[in-house]
Each structure stands twice: as C-alpha cells, then as structure tokens.
Specification:
242 residues, mainly alpha, 11 helices, 48% helix
Length: 242
C-alpha cells in the first residue's frame, strides 16, 4: 500500500524538489503580473522569462551549462529547450489551473486557491505527474512496463536507501537477463515511465558520476520521499557486528 502525507507549506524539505522551485518561480511571476504572465504569439513563455527560470530554478540536468552548452549549443533558449518547464506549463493547462487569454497566462479560480499554498500546489502536481498523466499512462501500457505504483514505490523504498543502479532496479523488478545489455531496453522503458516522474517531483535523486548510461546511473530516495510518501512498514534490518 502507499499513501500521501500532508506537509506544512513552509517545510524546508520541499526546497529540494525542482518541481517545487519551478512552481515557486511561477507563483512569484503571477504576483508580479497580476493581469497575466505575457506569452509569445504561439502561447509559450517568452525568452527572457525562460532564461530567468533556467537560472533560478536550477533544475538538475537542465542548468545554464547544460542547456546553452550541451549537445546543441544555443545562445537563446525558448520554452521547449527547457523541457521540464515546458512540461509543467502543459500540466497546469491539463489540470485547468491556468488558462491562456489574450496572449497571457492567467490562474483559474481553482489555480488561485491552489497557488496560495506552497505544499498544496506541489501535492496536486506531483500526484498528477505520478498517477494521472495520460502520457505516462500510455507509455507504460504501450511499452509493457508491468507493475503498479504500490509495488514500484515499496520495492524502491528498500532498494534505493543507499543508492541503486538502473540495472539493479530493473533486475529487481524484471529478473536478470542471461546476456547483460548495457543498453537494456527494459531500463529505458522503466526510466521514462516510472523513474523520471519520481525524479521530476524531487522524490528520487539521479546521480551520473558512475556513468551516463541508464543502467549505470545511481538512484537514491530523497528526504522528501521519506516525508511525503507513506509506504508499508519494512522489517528492521539486522546489523552484523564483526
């Protein structure tokens, strides 16, 4: 079983979540532009706001260095270059927390209520990203990612306590393959549909120091994971004293 705990809006554990920081950034912009955040003609965030968001949010793997000096060097970033921020824009629209009106982004009535509380806005977006996003649901069904959030969360609650590679997590869920594959498609599918949403919300940390391949990356549950998720009680681990 799994559940969600309610946290105080000013709980510092929320600070570690890139999703929280992105929502904080937008909340400040809605305060700055009470009549709506100005958008481009194509209804995307303007470049100056995107540049400010990249610098302020410091989303892991989407920093100034990685966006402007990555595989495709660019001088100016549009919204789509900052993919998690673009996704957040879409999620807010899907949930009808915001709307486009006369070239601006405005909070809906529900959005205003939600954005007034730091935890409430994170909680709604996190549950949508994890459990409701139709894109992720389709990916899991289309790619045959078997399992449930009950199983994924409770197993990873144990396996990622001290860090686990993508290969270890994949093998734990789906068994060890006879011939090891450094580009295991099972890991790729699990990452895009299960691990990535957890990273997006700040519940799971992804470390690439041991390698950039998905099977090599090391995943660890964060303090927010332990504070926000209510999971099955685990048996006490025995300590062996030599």
């Amino acid at each position: 079983m799994y559940g969600i705990r309610t946290l105080h809006a000013d709980d510092p554990v929320l600070d570690s979540s890139p999703l929280v920081r992105a929502l904080d950034f937008l909340a400040a912009k809605f305060d700055e532009f009470p009549n709506g955040i100005p958008l481009t003609k194509s209804l995307a965030f303007k470049r100056d706001l995107v540049a400010e968001a990249i610098a302020e949010i410091q989303w892991p793997d989407w920093t100034e260095q990685q966006i402007y000096h990555g595989y495709m060097r660019i001088k100016v970033a549009d919204e789509q270059h900052f993919e998690p921020f673009w996704r957040l824009h879409q999620h807010l629209l899907d949930l009808r927390l915001v709307r486009h009106y006369k070239g601006k982004l405005l909070l809906s009535k529900t959005g205003k209520t939600l954005f007034a509380n730091r935890f409430a806005r994170f909680d709604r977006l996190a549950q949508y990203v994890l459990f409701e996003d139709p894109h992720r649901l389709f990916m899991r069904q289309e790619h045959g990612v078997f399992g449930s959030w009950d199983v994924w969360l409770n197993v990873m609650d144990i396996e990622t306590t001290h860090g686990a590679t993508g290969k270890h997590i994949t093998d734990t869920f789906y068994g060890v393959e006879d011939e090891p594959n450094e580009f295991d498609p099972r890991t790729s599918r699990l990452h895009s549909s299960v691990l990535e949403p957890l990273i997006y919300c700040g519940l799971l940390d992804e470390n690439r120091d041991s390698g950039r391949k998905l099977v090599e990356r090391v995943y660890s549950k964060t303090q927010l994971w332990q504070s926000y998720l209510q999971l099955d009680e685990k048996p006490a681990m025995l300590r062996v004293v030599h």
